[in-house]
Amino acid sequence: MERDVTERRVVVGVDGSPSSYAALRWALRYAGLVDGVVEAVAVWELPGLYGWSGPAVDMDLDAEEARNRMRQELTDVLGADTAGSVRSHLVHGNTTDVLLRAAEGAEALVVGSRGRGGFARALLGSVSQQVCQHASCPVVIVRADQA
Fold first, then answer.
1. CA 86 to CA 58: how far, in whole Å?
2. Could you count the other beta carbons within 10 Å of the beta carbon of residue 91?
3. Is the separation of the CB atoms in 74 and 24 below 8 Å?
4. What gap in Å lies between CA 29 and CA 81, rounded to an integer?
5. CA angle 50–110–7, rounded 5-degree value
6. Which tens digits make up the pLDDT trace of 16-40?
7. For 113-128, what is each residue's pLDDT tens digit?
């Protein structure tokens, strides 16, 4: 992800969960206030790839299809006109590491409070907890019912 250091960026993690959609809407409103741009980052990682067992999923990811699905998801959540103003990035790697790198020099990193996995009753998801502890910029954690 190349960056223009003169523009104000608001980075938001998107994973298809209701709280990530709320985070996306929050990031868009905030970017409007600071005259910034929104960069939506979706991260994919193959579970079990580096463990002792073989991967439990198909190794062939159709990146173009995944990008198209992400663009459609942004359109469904924000509407076509607004989604067109959001820069989207689909990145392979560890979610926390990718988001922390993407947020370097950003105005803010915005994430949902709960992602797709883990324990539904936990207050924070593992990614939101990790980024709030290690980000080099302000972090905003948005709950789905607060959008």
1. 29
2. 17
3. yes
4. 15
5. 105
6. 889 999 999 999 999 999 999 999 9
7. 876 555 555 556 788 8
